Amino acid sequence: MPANLLLLLAAAIWGFGFVAQTLGMEHLSPFAFNGIRFLMGTFSLIPLVWYLRRQNKLHVSAPKDLVRGSLLVGVLLFAGASFQQVGLQYTTAANAGFITGLYIVLVPVLGLALKHTTGLNTWLGCAIAAVGLYFLSVKDGMSIGYGDALQLVGALFWALHILAVDHFAKRISPVVLAMMQFFVCGVLSLIVSAVIEVTTLDGVMAAWGSLFYAGLISVGIAYTLQVLAQKNAHPAHAAIILSLETVFAAIGGIIFLDESLSVRALFGCGLMLLGMLISQVPLRYLVKSRHQKVT
């Protein structure tokens, strides 16, 4: 129970992070906001890395793995975060949260290319989530909103990012990989910002609250909570609890941004959440739990 509560807190922090990201762009452009918040996240993890290093709990198989892993995972994080942040200018936090959450069902599907096994629950979850996406985002004339489309492309990169992390986490301590990917993403974001955006010190100061939340709390604290909690949490339970990030994104949008969802959109959100949950729980696990409950 303590581990599950910590995971729930992390999901809530990440969900409300969509609110901070939306508010931050009232003063900063997307790439500037991402660049600053991810570098803040990088520095926020230094104390944790220092502590784990003192405890001899960090490992790196080879320097080249650290370089390759940091660059690849960092670039994928940059792509996913960029599509998400730019897309937030054209859609709601609720839509962004639920569509981004589709990476949960995309990961096992893309994993087929890496010869990962995929159960029937994944395909069932994908089908339900796809129907939910239709009700949430597809407009009259079978068109999808620009912001929602960007979030959907971002979800693909988030899924690729998860697979890359899974690959390199076997060679590099996760917290080290996290800190380095945040650094790469932050630097790339600031480079793009310097080329296409205009950022002022006044804008940075005006957005300090959103940057503090998105950089230190959403990245530093929530990530630490996840690392600590998943040591004592069932993997299936952890995935389900963390997927509730999408629900908190919708709640945050309604409370803090005065967003509203139509009945059609709410129905779509419900189907997407159901699809995400089904994709994370093998059918044999459900059958086993049902059998245990009956007996």
UniProtKB/TrEMBL annotation:
<feature type="transmembrane region" description="Helical">
    <location>
        <begin position="236"/>
        <end position="257"/>
    </location>
</feature>
<feature type="transmembrane region" description="Helical">
    <location>
        <begin position="175"/>
        <end position="196"/>
    </location>
</feature>
<keyword id="KW-1003">Cell membrane</keyword>
<feature type="domain" description="EamA">
    <location>
        <begin position="147"/>
        <end position="278"/>
    </location>
</feature>
<dbReference type="Pfam" id="PF00892">
    <property type="entry name" value="EamA"/>
</dbReference>
<keyword id="KW-0472">Membrane</keyword>
<feature type="transmembrane region" description="Helical">
    <location>
        <begin position="36"/>
        <end position="53"/>
    </location>
</feature>
<feature type="transmembrane region" description="Helical">
    <location>
        <begin position="208"/>
        <end position="229"/>
    </location>
</feature>
<feature type="transmembrane region" description="Helical">
    <location>
        <begin position="120"/>
        <end position="137"/>
    </location>
</feature>
<protein>
    <submittedName>
        <fullName>DMT family transporter</fullName>
    </submittedName>
</protein>
<dbReference type="InterPro" id="IPR037185">
    <property type="entry name" value="EmrE-like"/>
</dbReference>
<keyword id="KW-0812">Transmembrane</keyword>
<feature type="transmembrane region" description="Helical">
    <location>
        <begin position="92"/>
        <end position="113"/>
    </location>
</feature>
<feature type="transmembrane region" description="Helical">
    <location>
        <begin position="65"/>
        <end position="86"/>
    </location>
</feature>
<feature type="transmembrane region" description="Helical">
    <location>
        <begin position="263"/>
        <end position="283"/>
    </location>
</feature>
<dbReference type="InterPro" id="IPR051258">
    <property type="entry name" value="Diverse_Substrate_Transporter"/>
</dbReference>
<dbReference type="InterPro" id="IPR000620">
    <property type="entry name" value="EamA_dom"/>
</dbReference>
<keyword id="KW-1133">Transmembrane helix</keyword>
<feature type="domain" description="EamA">
    <location>
        <begin position="3"/>
        <end position="137"/>
    </location>
</feature>
<feature type="transmembrane region" description="Helical">
    <location>
        <begin position="149"/>
        <end position="168"/>
    </location>
</feature>
